[in-house]
Amino acid sequence: MEFLLLAALLNLVGFAFSDKVYFASGNYTAGVYGSGPTQQFFSANYTPSAWNFVRPQTGIQRYPLGMCLPPPETVVGSDTIRPGPLIFDNDGHLVWDGTNFGETLVFQLETYLGKPHILTWSGDFLATGVGNGYVSLINNRYELVARFTTDLTGITGSTGSDFHEVRITSRNTAVMTAYQTKMMDLSPYGGLPEGFIADSVFQEVNITSGEPLFTWYASEHVDPGECFGRPGLGGAYGPWDYFHINSIDLSNDGNYLISSRYCFTLYYINATNGEIIWRLGGKNSSFAMGDGANYSYQHHARWIFQNDTYARLTVFDNAAESNESNESSSRGLHLALNFSNMSAELIQDFIPYNKTLSQSQGSVQLQPNGNFLIGWGFMPWISEYTSSGELLWVAQFGVVGGDFNEAYRALRYNWSGEPTAPPSIKVIRSSIDNTSNAYVSWNGDTRTQLWELLGSNISSVSGAMSLSNTSRRSFETALTVNTTAHKFNFLAVRALDEGNVSLGVSEFSSIVNGVSAILFGDWRVIFAVTVSVWIAQRTISFI
């Protein structure tokens, strides 16, 4: 199945209903439901974002995606939102809640030892806008395979990996960004003679041993005067991040393409000696930049095609930061490079539906069918376009202007999840008729097609009776049982794949001790005997 991974920061306020998705909702966009509406479930204690398809997907192929929304730990009233990566499907429904892996920004798929693995970063978000932490490598059973970080030496500063980028090479090594504070004479740039910089670094390490194999420092190859920022005081507690590395891509010849946000430049780095082979964009571009091919404050540079004479790549052109802008709108860019005459031309740009600026983050990803998926970074949207720039759909996962409704990248991959934990079940008894509802889900599973409801008088699969089969509906599915016709003390579910092969069985949940529910039309009021509050939740149908 294809999934889209989105690394984001969200301040999730309010909640929507289980598996709820909005379509062209003006109330959502206006913030009526909060700055980041979330969903809630009976069978799992998760609060994923609720999407609003501002421009729904009409007349195009609807195939499964997934999305990662890793919110920071944010206190909203008396509630604390758990940080961590989340995967959604194409319709905005939860597939996997990975908050047990902690707060993250990098969240993507890479091949390690010939198999796809999830990469996620964890650590400290520093006040300077960079990170100090480590990377987790997770297999398709959601098991931790490895944990690693950078290994830098110096007088002061971070020695752990930064959250902006991590890649796995064909040698099964890892390449990561990092930042290290160093003293530098900043007087030529308007700063202190004994100032400090936050030096941009990328390093390749042996995943198994943690041994550093190659390390590149921006300060050894790029003079700060080549970039566009100002140092300020540049003191030890406010080092000047003049370069700001935010992406790395691996080249066919083993070299590296890196992005410097504040130099407005993509640098092509020799993997043997670290020398700069060429620059694309910025003050000292090696290429003549064609009309519309320039960019600024950019993110997420990626090769599409590359040989000795010609190449194509994508990059997200923010064209702005918090206090400055160079264009009226951010863009996704598809560029062509001609190495014979050293020219760069714009093939196509992709404009947000409301033509606005995203002051940070963002991504562009070529799809297998030739479309382009754009994550709008600071602006909480995802869009898909044809190769000619035709907008196909737009979804928002938060309200513009809401706190921390941001997505670092939006990326789509093939992914098959096979969790080792069993499915989850929550039984809710009706207090006005002879029915019980069993709400079932399986965090991270992508294979289940049917839920088989099992009844038993003991909390064991031994002697259990099959009561019904129900098609899976998104993350959580409601199964109804008549407790007069089927007098059982316990209910469980068995997950079945498309060939009716059993994938796993939930624990048995007591009907006698289940939560009571009073039904009023299409509203369900849940009352927990041990809790002196009630929650009204509207019953919805799966879209």
TrEMBL record:
Entry's transmembrane regions: none
- Name of a matching Pfam family: Arylsulfotran_2
Q: Does the keyword 4Fe-4S apply?
A: no
Keywords assigned by UniProt, alphabetized: Signal
| Signal sequence bounds | 1-18
Reply yes or no: does the keyword Signal apply: yes
User: What's the domain of life for this entry?
Assistant: Eukaryota
User: What InterPro entries does UniProt report for this protein, alphabetically?
Assistant: Arylsulfate_ST (IPR053143), ASST-like (IPR039535), Quinoprotein_ADH-like_sf (IPR011047)
Q: What is this protein called?
A: ASST-domain-containing protein
